[in-house]
Amino acid sequence: MSIQEEVQKRKTFAIISHPDAGKTTMTEKLLLYGNLIRSAGTVKGKKSGKFATSDWMEIEKQRGISVTSSVMNFEYEGFHINILDTPGHEDFSEDTYRTLTAVDSVVMIIDSTKGIEAQTIKLFKVCRMRGIPIFTFMNKLDREGKEPLALLEELEEVLEIDTYPMNWPAGMGKGFLGIFDRENEQFVQHHPGAEESYIPYKELENHPELTENGTYQDAVNELELVEEAGNTYSEEAILNGELTPVFFGSALSPFGVQTFFDSFIRLAPSPTPRKSTKGAVKPEEEDFSGFIFKIQANMNPAHRDRIAFLRVCSGKFTRGMSVALARTGKELKLAQSQQMVASSRETIEEAYAGDIIGIYDPNAYQIGDTLLTGKEKYEFDELPQFPPEIFKKVMAKNALKSKQFRKGIEQLVQEGAIQLFRDKLTDSFILGAVGELQYQVFTYRMENEYNAEVIMEPIGERIPRWLNPEQADASLFDSGNLLVRDRHDQPLVLFRNEFALNWFKDKNPDIELIDLFETNNYQ
Ligand code: G4P
């Protein structure tokens, strides 16, 4: 098979959701379709104490969670599917955001009884801003939930994205009859406890027991409304991430999952070109290229190894190949390469653009590094920096260990485990993270890997705003709103709260305040 054919076969996506919306249940169903697992219940939920993917780090074992995102892959209907797992809110970290740089689309699962939940809005927004195609699955239709029209409206308002319902539900909860599958022009009938059945639109007249039901008729009226007043279907808008196709169903039953997945596979993009310093890099180019979006240290405590997760962007990877690390020009041999499948690591011999592989890291890589073969030298666009929300001052517990302390911080920051800021006045160390878990991992690793115990002093949730360096005048900021610099020496202010931010804006209308979430940093 040619590289181009291999690339066309690939669908690489992440499933994102608020905890308990049904991500694990959905993943499990997809793995069943892919024959990767044989029975439901193999992918363990958090509550059973074991997690689906890994217990690499002690901290994972202690908390029974998956700190690391893992990758699952399987063949389905002639396609090669790569699913990247992303941790939920409590376990949220920058890794979760970065995972989104390595996928070509996302499946967003929403609990239809709850709608869009606050904590996940940012994650969804990052997808939206990056222009990643988003496919929405409104889950738990077997329970009484919000009205479908209200759910669509919420989605459009909160995420500023157009919606197109691919199917339309008739009823919900106990009165759930099934869905109108608009694409295949059929009614998918729900039979509690049994498999779904399909009635083509043309044959519906032969089913008065269904069509005379009031719930069914209400749904027909709603569907008419959606057809008249709703958005127009556009595959182009889907691929640009401007329109999300919405599927209603139940991952648990399962109901509507197969039709969802079939449509998803058809519509989701195969790997697309990636931006670099030489311009767009096409996935079917002969020369291999890829970038590192995540580094995980100490997956195996016995070996103290580090694994770098690489997204292949062009060409073909073969085990043992030599590549150049674009940042340093150094040649490296990719001898140990692994694929993360559920709890095991399998050696992988070859991979193509779109695939994600784990490679052994001899302490050479940084997040965002480009690996290449071929004569042309270039680097992929830098990974975006995500604005942290929780900040803490950090000091070495034992002043005599300041050397270990600095080394640990330097390495963990370089690895992307946490962000470091320095106070403009005192030069003290301030850490920033998007999730509390990052601090737990940081503390644990400082102690265990660098023998440097730390003391942390919370300075609370802050609102970071980057400044134009010429306007970073310390006299403008009182001590409550910290003026700091990031590791690229760019100045920013950590505002105490929304009130302080607005007050400052009113007083200093000429000072430009940059919100990383609003800039095109994500593009
Ligand atoms: P998560 O990975 O997004 O955190 O969610 P997960 O799949 O673990 O699902 C959370 C809970 O919601 C689970 O129930 C699961 O069975 C349930 N669930 C998932 N999909 C559906 C659905 O379509 N309908 C209904 N009614 N429930 C659904 P649990 O009781 O919290 O855990 P468990 O003991 O069943 O594993």
Structure description:
The chain has 523 residues and is an alpha+beta fold. The chain has three domains: 3-169 and 232-267, Rossmann fold (3-Layer(aba) Sandwich), CATH 3.40.50.300; 289-372, Beta Barrel (Elongation Factor Tu (Ef-tu), domain 3), CATH 2.40.30.10; 390-519, Alpha-Beta Plaits (2-Layer Sandwich). Mean pLDDT is 86; it is low at 39-69. Bound molecules: guanosine-5',3'-tetraphosphate. Residues 17, 19-25, 45, 47, 88, 139-140, 142-143, 250-252 line the site of guanosine-5',3'-tetraphosphate. The site of guanosine-5',3'-tetraphosphate has 18 residues, from α2.
Keywords:
523 residues, alpha+beta, Rossmann fold, Elongation Factor Tu (Ef-tu), domain 3, Alpha-Beta Plaits, 8-stranded antiparallel β-sheet, 13 helices, binds guanosine-5',3'-tetraphosphate
Quick rundown:
InterPro entries: EF-G-like_DII (IPR053905), EFG_III/V (IPR035647), G_TR_CS (IPR031157), P-loop_NTPase (IPR027417), PrfC (IPR004548), RF3_C (IPR032090), RF3_dom_3_sf (IPR038467), RF3_GTP-bd (IPR041732). It comes from Oceanobacillus oncorhynchi. With 523 residues, the protein is of the alpha+beta class.
